[in-house]
Write the structure tokens for this entry.
Amino acid sequence: MYDADGHELLDYTLAWGLLIAGSCHPRINAAVRDQLRRSYAVGAGHELEVRLAERLTGSAAGGGPGYVRFLRQRDRAGGAAPGAGGHRRDKILKFEGHYHGWMNNVLVSHPPPPADVGAARPVPALAAGQPAAEYADTLVAPWNDLDALRAAFAAHGDEIACVITEPLLANSGCCEPRPLLGRPAGDRPCPRRAGDLRRARAAFAPLLDGRTVHSGSNNGSPVAVAAALATLEVLSEPDTYDTMHAHGRAIRRHLEQEASRLGVDLVTCGAGSVFSVHFGLRKPPRCYADTLAADATAFARFPRPPCCTNGIYLLPDGRWYVGATHTDRELQRTLPAITAALQHRLRWRLTGGGGRGQH
């Protein structure tokens, strides 16, 4: 990518994680152009939706739960959730620090101010413009706290329509989920047993029988679905995920080794292609509350500005996204820039750079 002055930048923001296949991938561009020649929208089901649903569920290969609904964006999923299940349930349970879009019922406790950390009540994310009635049925639990989750279900189990979650706490520190019931984090099988499939079908029943509405002019947009199919084709290339994960691990390893060598307290945490850097911590955070002990302004000062000067574009909150187009060539540009940025931080500290907020 290029800035307004024409400087080339190596992008580790990926539009805040959206562009896992990178910007302007030729295969995705070709799929979108081909669909634009056919139609922009159809307002009904179409073949590409079926192909994408089969790809997502694995039903083309004889597995998977068999039910998929396409929405325009994640906000609509939050709006439709209270209609899920076989009974009228109005409450949603989300986790502290997780982000699920800009609808008022889910834009809460993202992130809460320090004084409200751990509160079971929803804390509006905006200082104005969020009517309290719109998030009155939203429950909040700390991430990685099974006791708090059990307590929420003990108190409201018959009222909870669903639990919504990021796969890991990516938007507030990249905290991985703790192992659940003896399974390693990330080892969550798809519902394939008869009982699981019945529950999956029951969750979709209100949509199928008309008790709740799933409408939207751009739901299942053929242009977006064509791009999604092409993206999955890119990601299905041999060794793609292994390469992305190795790239991310190499950056994390270099950050931690160089920080240790230079006497800088720093940890990284995350999973494969997404991770966060936390200055001032000596062990990875497990939840949003843990991240508050880090120096939240340090990454915006170092290493982000020096890295940007050296052509490495990063998010201001310490989050990194690695995509399918990041190769060893990009890695060889990135590692020296990290070293230079950490050395710059050390010089700034030794020359009396001052406390937080000073540059």
Summary: The first strand starts at residue 10 and ends at 11.
